[in-house]
Amino acid sequence: MSHSPTTIPEHHPALVHQFDSMEQQREASTFGMWVFLLTEIMMFGGLFAAYLIYRIKYYDAFVAGSSSIDVTWGFINTLVLIGSSLTMALAVSAAQRAWRRGAQIFIVLTMILGSVFLGVKAIEYHQKYVEHHIPGGVFGAFDAVSDYPGEDHNIYWDLVNKEHRTPEAAKQIADQTQIFFCFYFAMTGLHALHMIIGLILMTWLLVQVQRLNIGPEYYTPVELSGLYWHFVDIVWIYLFPLLYLINRTHGR
Amino acid sequence: MQSLPLFPEQASTVAGQVDALYLFLVLITTFFSLLIAILIIYFAIKYRRTPERTAEQIHGSTLLEIVWTVIPLGISMVIFLWGAALYFHIQRPPGNALEVYGVAKQWMWKFEFPGGQREINSLHVPTGRPVKVTLISQDVIHSFFVPAFRVKSDVLPNRYMTSWFEATTPGTYHLFCSQYCGTKHSGMIGEVTVMKPEDFAAWLESGKAEGSMAASGEKLFQQYGCTTCHRPDSGARGPNLEGLYGRPVRLQDNRVVIADDNYIRESVLNPNAKIVSGFQPIMPTFQGVVSEEQMLQIIAYIKSMADQTGQPLNNRSTPTQIRDTEVPNVQQQMQQDQNQKPSGKQP
Amino acid sequence: MSTAAQTVKPVMPARHYLNDNYGIRSWLLTKDHKRIAVLYLFSITFFFFIGGIFASLIRLHLLTPNGELFQADTYNKMFTMHGVNMIFFFLIPSVPAVLGNFIIPIMVGAKDLAFPKINLMSWYIFMVGAFFSLYAMVSGGVDTGWTFYTPLSSGFVHTNVIVMAVGILFAGFSSIFTGLNFIVTVHRMRAPGLTWGRLPLMVWANYAASLIMILGTPVLAITLILLALERGFHIGIFDPKLGGDPVLFQHMFWFYSHPAVYIMILPGMGVISEIVTCFSRKRVFGYAFVAFSSIAIAVFGFVVWAHHMFVAGISVYSAMVFSLLSYAVAIPSAVKVFNWTATMYKGSVKLDTPMLYALGFIGLFTIGGLTGLFLAALGLDVHIHDTYFVIAHFHYVMVGGMVMAYLGGLHFWWPKMTGKLYPEPVAKLAALITFIGFNLTFFPQFILGYMGMPRRYAMYSPEFQVLNVLSSAGASILAVGFILPALYFTWSLKYGEVAGDNPYKATGLEWQTTSPPPTHNFDVTPVVTEDPYHYGAEEEVTVVP
After folding, report:
1. Interval C457-478: pLDDT, tens
2. Which of A15, C407, C427, C484 is deepest in the core (most CB within 10 A)?
3. Is C229 an 8 Å CB contact of chain A?
4. C347 φ, ψ to 5°?
5. CATH superfamily of B213-338
C-alpha cells in the first residue's frame, strides 16, 4: 500500500478517514455496537440482580405487587414490541436490497409500534398513579377502602378479602410492596428511557436513509439501529416475565 | 513487644496471634521489597549503558516464570490459611461468654449488661473470661474497634452483629468507631476498662440501679401486650416463648431456623416474614414502637424464660427437639376474630 | 546507533496535528485522537490539582490531634472531595484518556481510533460530569466519603449527594466509551502484520483495562441511580428502616469499585513495560506472560470485591472464598514485577527521567501490592480494616504506583506529543523529590494504621501525632515534586529543545513518525514485520536457567 491513506481507489462516499475499506468500517462499527450492548446488559443486569434478591427476601410482597399489575397490558406490549422488531428486521432487509422507500416505511412502522408501547406504558403508569402505587410520599397500598369501583387493585383489600390474609399480615405485606413498585418503576422506567432514545434514533435513521446511499455496500446505520432496537426488545422480554408473570399467586 | 511504639498493647488472647501473622507478613514484605529494590539498583548500575556493550536480547524463561509464580502462590496459601484460621477463631464467640449489649448511634456508644448496668462511651470488662458484645445501630453503619484487642465489627442497623474477646491485661484502652458515620465520627470514641475479676464484680454491684435487663424486658413484654398471645397454655394464639431462645423452630413453610437474637428481633418488627408452623399470621408489627434498647431488654427477658422442664436457657439443642406445637382450636378463634375489627397495635 | 542522524540537529516538522488547524472550533470539534488526548490532559491535570489541594488541606489539618484548622464537617467534605476527584476525575481517565488516546492508534498503525466522534463525545461527557462535580463542591460539598455507604448517604446527610452521583455517573459513561473505542480499535484496526503477539504491552494493558471499563462501570451506574432514587424519593432499597439492605449497596458498589482499581493500575503497568524496555534497550522478559497477566488481572479482579467487606457482616465462608481469590489476583502482578526486573538483567540501562519513574513504580508498587496481602489475610484484616493501614496501602499502589507511571509516561511521550524536550536535570530532581516526599508521607501511615488510628478521623488520639506530623511534612515535599513537572512542562513548550522523531531511539510505531505526529499519523500505512521491543540484532533465544 503506497498511496496516501486519505485517497483510496473506489472511495465510497460513506467511508470515514480512519478506516481503510468499507468492510473494515462495517466490521468495526458492528463490533462496537455489540460491545455497547454488552455494557447495557451489565447495567440492566445489576438492576435485575437487585430485583431478584429482593423478590426472594420479600416474597409475599412481590407476589402481591406482581398480581396488581395488569398482565393484559403487559402482554399487549410484548406483542407490540415483537412486532416492532419484525418491522425493524424488515427495514434492515429492505436497506440491504437498496429498497430505500421500503426501509423508510418499515422504520416508520417500527416507530409507530414503539410509540404504541410507550402509550400503553403511560396508561399503566397512570393506573398505578390512581391506585396510589407510586413509591415515595403518596404510596398507599393499604387504603382500607377502594376508591374506584372496578379498580380493585387495592393490595390490602385484595390480601384480606381475596387471599384471606389476616389484617396484620396484610398490612405488613402491603407496606413492603413499596419496594416492588420501586423496582417496577426503575426497571420499566429505564427501559422506557431506552425506548425513547430508540425513537430518536429511528428519526435520525429516517433522515440518513434519505441522505445517504443506503444499499448493499452500505446499510450499516440501519443494521446497527436494528441491533439496538432488538436489544431494547429483548430487555422487555426479560422484564415482562420477571415483573408480570412469575409468582402472581402464592406458590408456597 | 509492648514497649515498641509500633504496636498497640496486646490486651487480649488473640492480640498476640494477630501480631504474629502481621510480623510474618512484615518479614515477607521486607524481604521481597528489598529483593526487588536491590536487584533493580544493582542491575541499573551493573548494566548501565556504556558504548562498549550492547544489551543481550533474552526472550524469557518458562521455568523461571513457573518458579516465580509457584513460590508466591505457595507463600500466599500459607498466609491465607493462617489468616483464615485466625478469622474463624475471631468470628465465633465461645459458648460461655459474658454477654454485653451495645447500641451505637450518631455519635455515641451505649452499653448495657444483663444485670442492668449501663455505660455510655465506656465499657468495663473482666480479665480471664470471654466477653461477647452484641451490637446494633440506631441509624447508620458504625464499627466497633478496640485496637488493643485486635477486634473489629461493623455495627449495622436492623441486624445484630457480635464481637467477642478475652481480655488479658488490666488497663484502659481505646474504643474507636471505625466506619465513617457522619460529622462526629472521630468523636465517637470510648474507653474499654479491663479489670481483674474481683474488681469487675465489685463494679457490677455498684451499678445495679435500674434492675436487670431481663426484668426491664419483662415489664415491656407486659406493657406492649405480648402476654395476650404468647402464653404457655394450649389456647394461646402465639407460640410459647419459654425455653425458645437458641432452639430450632419449624416454620409454616417447613423451613427450620434457630431462634437467635436476629430471629426474635425480626419477629417483633416484621412478624409476617417467618410464621411458626401451626400459627396464624396475626401478630402486628412493632416497627417504630420499640427502641433498640427496649428490643435488647425484651430479648434478654425471652432468654431468661426457662421452659417448664426448668432447663437452663441458651443451650443449642439438636434438631430432633424441634418445637412443633399444634394448637387445634386456633382456627375457630381466627374465624371469630376475623369478623371483628383488628385490635392489634397500630404503629 | 546511527551517528549520522545525531550530527543533524532535529527540527520541528512544518505541519503537525497541533498547527494543522487553528482556532477554538478546531479544537472543540476535533475528531483527532491526539487533540482529544490534549483536551483530556488539561481537564485531568486541573482535577489532579483540585484533589491535591484537598490533600494538602487534609494533611495540614492533621498536624494537630484536636482538629483545630477545620470543623469536622468541613474536614469530612474535604476527604470526600479528595477521593472523588482523584479517583473518578483523575486516576481513571489518566493513562487511558491521555496517553492511551494519543499513542494507541499510532501504536497499532491506525490513522485514528475506531470511533473518533465517540472519542470526542466521551470528553464532553467527562466535562459534563466534571461540571456536576464542581457544582457539588462549590455548593456545599459532599461528606459521605467517596464510598457513599448507605444508609448514611441515602438518608442522613444533607449535602449534595445526588448532584455528585450524577457527576460520577457521567464520568463513568465517559470511561465506558473510551474503553469501547479501545477494544474495537485493537480488534479491528491493527496494521498489516501486527498480530496480537506483536502488540506493544501498552496496548495489551489498556485493552485489559478497557474490558473492565465496559463490564464494571455499568454496575456503578445502576448503583448510583438506585442511590439517587432512594435519596430523592425516600424508598427503601438500601435503607433498613424502609426495608432495604445496606450491605447490598456495599456489594453492588464494590462490584465495580474493586475492578476500578485495576482500571487505574493496568494502563500504568503498560506504560512501565514501554519504558523499562526502551531504557534497557532490551525486549521485555517473558512477553507472553506479561501480556496474559494483564488479562488475568482483569478477570480475577471481578471476583474479589467482598474483600472490602470482611467485617461488614458477610458469612465466614464467603469471606474465605474472597480471601483466597484475592491472593490469586496478586500473583499476576507479582509476575509482572519479576518480568520487568528480569528485563533489566544484561540490558543497557540509562536512568533518564522516565526510567526513574518506572523504577520508582516497580519498588513502590511492590510494597503497595505486598501490603495488600496483609489486608487479604482475614484474621489480620479484622484489625487493620478501615485504619490508616488501608490508606497507606492504596496510596502506595495508586500514587507510588499509578501516578508515577502516569508521570513516567508523560515524560516518555512528551517529546512525541509536543515535539519538545523537557529539561532533564530538573525532571530528574523532581522525580527524586517526589519519591522521597511520597515515602515520607505514606510510610508512617502503615504504622499509624496498625497502631489503630481509624480512617476519616478529623481528630485523633494524641499518641498518633508524631507520625501524623511526619506524614504531613512528607506531603509538603511531595507537593513540590508534583508542581515542578507542571512548571517545566509548560516551560518546555516554548523554550524546550526540539526533540526530533525518536529522541530515545525507541522501537514502536509511534517513534517512526514525526514529533509531533501529523494529523493523519502516518504518511504511509506501516507494515509490521517484527516483534515489539526489537532492540539490538535478532539473536537466538537465550534461556536463563
Report:
1. 999 999 999 999 999 999 999 9
2. C407
3. yes
4. -95, -165
5. Cytochrome c-like domain (1.10.760.10)
